[in-house]
Amino acid sequence: MNVDNKFLDNIIQFNMLEKNDKVIACVSGGADSIYLLHNLYAIKEMFNLTILVAHVNHGIRDTAKRDEDFVLKTSKDLGLKVKTIQVNMNEYAKEHKLSSEEAGRNLRYEFFRKLSKKHGKIFLAHNANDQAETVLQRIIRGTGIEGLSSMSFVSDGLYRPMLNIRRFEIISYIEENKIKYVEDETNYQTIYARNKIRLNVIPYIEEHFNSGFIDSLLRLSEISTENYLYVKSKVDEYIKNNYKNSVLNVKGLKSERDYFTSEVVRQFLRLELGNIDGLSKQNILDTVEIIKNSTSSRVTLPKNTSIEISYDSLFIKSEDEDVEFGPIELSEGLNDTELGNIRIKSNSSYRVSDNMISIDQEKIKGKLYIRNKRSGDKFMPFGMKNNKKLKDYFIDEKIDRTKRNFVPIICDDENIIWVSPYRLSEMYSVDRNTRKIMNIILEEIDERN
Question: What are the respective helix, strand and coil percentages of the chain, to the nearest 5?
Fold first, then answer.
């Protein structure tokens, strides 16, 4: 059996394979995935490939077992190893409040990615028609330029060598080579949104408005991809130059167009939150608004988080940042606390060290404690004659915002003695009248610092 030249051209053009690669062929048993499998098999010796066939039984059709058996037999006939899994798509959808389509996709990709850790690159059978249908589906739902760019030949560890191959070309190849496949009867039922687009919407538009509608959608996707990649390069450049220690400097965004600012915000949120699932368009628009017009404000986000701006700094704040630690009473010797290990040595001698202070023991008022910051905290930094807000001190010293809640504060019954390990309070410093010296050592700080 010969490889389809268009398939091989894509493999070479997009550098999808190297000699001795391990690949996973994701096969449902339908025409598209069988085309993928046979073409990978046709170039097996050319690249000395190790091919694993992966199949997901979604557990929703009476013929699902038939499809699984067909994939098992086809793999055996080709001398290929196969991994299968049975899932309950509808139960998963209900549990996670997803559509059946979304649930099926999540379950498939979870299975494929687990396999990829041992068995190599994930090859998927998405074709040109799938690409066009995806673009139209996103237009109907509402999307931006990123959504219009749709799927890529290679992205995020996924390989799609058929994105420019039309469905009629796939069927033609299969018929010419007398290759068997199974037909998923639900493909012809309008029970899913994508099926309605494939069976009703696209044929209607082709018949009444534009016979080359699929080609138009593909051109739109290609143009959008080029535009998106250009914008993304500018966004990445801004992030690279202005994002550090979980804080984004937004000074340069105040004069930018709202669209560009929104894309920077989206990327910043992805970096901070991992993904932006659950965030609304309004969340993004509100964030752009505070960047352009506020020096201090916040936008509430899902999952007990907010995005805040302070002067030119944008950052994420989560509910656990306001958790209070202590106060915990300190005693002579080693004190193991959740903010760090503090050693107290009374009647000691004056010493200078990065993680230690020497204070006038007789200036202590009451007992010693360790805690974290509190709203309204003030202290008199060493060398100064007036109190300073702890919040302002953190800002002036450029102490990472994400670490401020875990900075150990050593205090007595009345005042802050040491913002450790940064600054001693002038009120407790050793002077010529000092008779007793106490050393306070920060032996080990919480790892979040």
Answer: 45, 20, 35
